[in-house]
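Protocol step 4 of 5: obtain the predicted structure for the target chain.
Materials: sequence only (see below). No template structures provided, no constraints applied. The aim of this step is simply to have a reference model before the mutagenesis design in step 5. Sequence pasted as it appears in the construct record:
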Amino acid sequence: MKNSFSIWLEAARLRTLPLSVSGIIVGNALCLRHPDFSILLFILMLLTAIAFQIISNFANDYGDWLKGTDNINRVGPKRVLQQGLLSRNKMKNAILITSIISLLLSIITVGIAFGSNSPLYLLIFLGFSGLSVWAAISYTVGKKAYGYHGLGDLFVFLFFGCLSVLGSYFIQLKNLSENVFYLSIALGFLSVGVLNLNNMRDRQSDALVGKNTLVVLMGKSNSKFYHLTLLIFSIVIIVYVCLSGSNKFFWLPFIALIPLLLHFWKVFKNKDPKKLDPELKKLALSIFLFSILIFVTYLIG
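Step 4 output (C-alpha cells):
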C-alpha cells in the first residue's frame, strides 16, 4: 500500500515539472551576462513556476475525475482520484493550499523585483500571477473549463511561452529584447507540442466524454500535421536565434534538437495511442535539455 507522501508525489506528477521551468530558465539565460542579474529572483521564479504547475496537476486530477474523463478508457497513467487514493475534499484543500503558496511566492518575487519604485509593473505582474492560478485551475475545473473547449493550446502557448520567457526576462532587466521575443514563441510552440501529444494519446477517451480538445476537433491526421508544424517552426526559430548571435557556443543548444528528428518519424507513423506516451516524455525532456543548454551557452559564452 502506498504511503501518504508517495501518493502526493504521484498527484504532483513530478515528470511534468521540468517542462514548467523550461521557459523560466530560457528567459533568465538571456540575462546572465547583465550586471543586474539576480540569482535570488531566478530561484524564486523557478519555485513559483513549480508551484503553478503543481496547482495545475492537482486541478487536472480533480477536474477530469469529477467530469468522468478519468475512466477505464483513459490511455495515459492513472490519476490518484481515479485510483481512489485521495478523497475529493483532500484534493480541493491541496489546490487551495498550493494556490496560496504560489501567490505568496509571486508577491515576494515581484515585490523584490519592482518594490515601491515601479507600482504599475508590480500590479501588472500580480495580475499575471492571479491569472496563472486561474488558468491552472480552470483548464479542467468548472462548467466552462477551457481545456474542454479546444482552448488549451492557446493558454499553454501564452503561459508556458510568452509569460514564462518574456515575464522572467522582464522581471530581471525591466525591458525586452528581440531574441527573448523569438525564443518565447519557440518555447510556446514546443510546449503546445507536448499538450498536443498528450491529447493525441487521449483522443478517443476524451471524445467519448465530450472533452473537445483541439485534437478531438481536428481529428487524428490533422493533429499529426499540426504537431509537426509546431515543432518545425520552433526549430527554425531556435536555429535563427542561435546563428544570429555572436556566442561561440551557439551550436550547443542544437544537441537538444537531435532527438526530435526520430520523434518526428515516430509520431507521424504512429497508429497505437499508447505508444505516444514515451514520445511525450521524450519531447518534454528535450525541451528541458534545450533550456539547460541555452543557459550553459550564455553562462560560458
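Step 4 remarks: The chain has a mean pLDDT of 93. Residues 239 and 254 are 8 Å apart (CA to CA).
Proceed to step 5.
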